[in-house]
Write a structure and sequence with these properties.
By secondary structure, the chain is mainly β. It has one helix and nine strands. A nine-stranded antiparallel β-sheet has the order 1-2-3-4-5-6-7-8-9, with no helix packed on it.
Amino acid sequence: MSINLFFVLILGLLVGMFGYFKPHEKQHYEAQEVPQFELEQFVIYEITSSKIDHFFEGEHGKHFEDRYEISGAKFTNNVKPLLESIRADEALYKEDVITLKGHVHYSRADGLAFRSSEGIYDQNRSLIQTKGPFVITKDQHRIEGSRLNYDLVHDTTSADQVRGSYQLH
């Protein structure tokens, strides 16, 4: 066997190996935001030296650097004169603003209740907003409408397509 034939066989073997073990292109994945932690069936309390100020609970929660995303959410605020709570199927809690979706229900200790399919609750400004239909009840009184802006501090409401029922005593 000549030396040239030996090198041709080696070259053929190397080309065959390169073709068989050809490097594949790496798949590029888009970077997804990863939560700092996730919780299942949880309750989180904010406690001061005198009482529990806030607590929120949920079925599944994710904490990101700037927000919480919660399913089966319930937020309770005990800072204001009247205890208030709000619950929804899905919630996004960011900078004291809670964006809610699915079966939104707000209730206050004096009997005021609010229901909608979506809403935004700004805790600092004590303002509830919704763009869709809503129902507010207190005692036997009932108000229905769409596009609600409800200021809890001043107890003022603005809405569209309002229809109400009041019980006079």
